[in-house]
Amino acid sequence: MRFLTAGESHGQKLVGIIEGLPAGMEISKDRIDMALRQRQMGPGRGGRMAIEQDEIQIISGVRGGLSTGAPIALEILNRDWENWEKIMAWGESADLDSRKVLTPRPGHADLTGYLKYRTEVRNILERASARETAMRVGIGNIVRQGLTALGVEIRGHVLAVGGVHALRSDKEEYWQQVKQSKWSVGDPLAEKLMDKQLLTARDQGESLGGLLEVQVYNIPAGLGSHVHWDRKLDGKLAQAVLSVQAMKGVSFGLGFEAGERVGSLVHDPITYRPGRGFARASNHAGGIEGGMSNGEPIILQAVMKPIPTLYHPLDTVHLETKETIKASVERSDVCAVPAALVVLEHVVAWVIAEAVLEKFPADSFIELKTTWEDYKEHLRRL
Ligand code: EPS
Known about the structure:
The chain is 34% helix and 19% strand. By secondary structure, it is an alpha+beta fold. The longest helix has 23 residues, at 337-359. The structure holds ligand EPS.
C-alpha cells in the first residue's frame, strides 16, 4: 500500500492517491472531515484557518461507502486559491513578481530549497508549507478507520507547549479531559499557563513549539521486522513523524531517559498468563523491541520546533543584494502544537496500517480481518 500527495498551499487544491487498500473496507467521509476540521483548530492557529473549511472530495476507489480495491483519489480544495490565482497560475500569465520572496525565513525550507532547486523561494515554500498535512490527515484517516475496525485505537496528547509541561495520567477521566481540551491536555492548570504563554508569544512576535505523544493500542506482537534497517517498525514510525513539518525529534517509550538508567530499570520483564499469552510487566520499550511490535502499546513522543515564521523576524540575507535584512513574514500560526498532534496520529496510522498489510497481505478487508483474528488467537493460545 502506498500514497502520494501533490498540491501547493495557495494552489487550486491538494490531491492525494492511495494505492493498495483492500476492497470492502468501510469508509466514512464524515469521519475524514471531522479529522480535517480538528487539524484546523487549536489555540495559536493563523488567519488561513479562518479562510479554509477543509473537506475531503472522494474522486475514485470508493463506492457505496466501501473501498473497491482500486486507487482512491482524493482532493481538498484551497478556498484561498481565489486570492492567489494570478500568482500561482500554471501558464505564462502567472504573476511571478508581486509575491516574490527574496528574504528567506530562517527555520523554513526557503533558502535551502532555493539553493538546491535553483528556483524562486515561493516555489519552495508553497510545497514545504504545513498546508500539505491536510491531505496527510485525509489519507491517514481512511486507513485509521480500517485500523479501528480491527480494534486498534490511536490517541495522543500534548505534553508541553512553550516550556509549560502538563501533568499526565492513564486514567479514563484524564483522556476525557484531553478530548475536550483545546490544548489536548488533561491538566487545567497547564491549560491556563499555556494560554498565558501563547498571549506573551503573540505580543512579542514569537512562536511556540512543544512536546507531543501518540499511543497505539491493541497491536499484536510481530509488526515490522528485525531483518533489515528499513523494515524496523520504530525506524518507519520515526521517519513518518519526522516527515511532518516542524518536527525535530522522536523517541519511544522511556525515550531519552532510557540512556540515563541502568538496564534493570529499563528493560521490561516478560510475563505469561494462560489465555492471554506473553506480555511485559512494564512498557519502557514503548511497545517495540528489535524493530517489531512486542504486543504492548506503542508509545512515541515527538518534538515540535516553534513555527519558523516570526512576526518579529530574525536576520536573513537578501538573495540579490546579499545585504543583511530582516526575514520576510508570511501569514502563519503562533502555535500549531494541537494541530500537529492530529497530523501525527494520522501519519502513525498510515505506518501501522502499512505494517499490518505487510504481515497480513489481503485483497479484501474480510480476508485481512480473518487472518488478523486468527493470528491474535494463535498468540493467546501459546
Ligand atoms: C497551514 C497553512 C499555511 C500556514 C501554516 C499552516 O497557510 P498560509 O501559508 O496560507 O497561511 O498558515 O503553515 C505554515 C505556517 C508553514 O510555514 O508551513 C495549514 O494548513 O496548517
